[in-house]
Specification:
22% strand, globular
Amino acid sequence: MTDNSDARSDIPEWNAPEVECVRRVLGGPTLVRGPVSITMPDGHVVSSDRFVVAVCRCRRSKIFPLCDTSHRKRRRPPGSTVERNEVS
């Protein structure tokens, strides 16, 4: 018997056995090995069948929650190396 103390019965995807690769890009999106389905707070599901999916963290994307590279328009002060936590 396995310990499911972290399991959430109200979110079936939470209990899926698959482990996916996720990479956070400095100043950019979070890259997720696809295909993916993202359930939005209103219940709407956004799906992508690409092999790598860029998930927006800056919330500037016109196709949010997917990235459209709008984060590239943001200018950083010269010499700035600290990433700001736009969206967790």
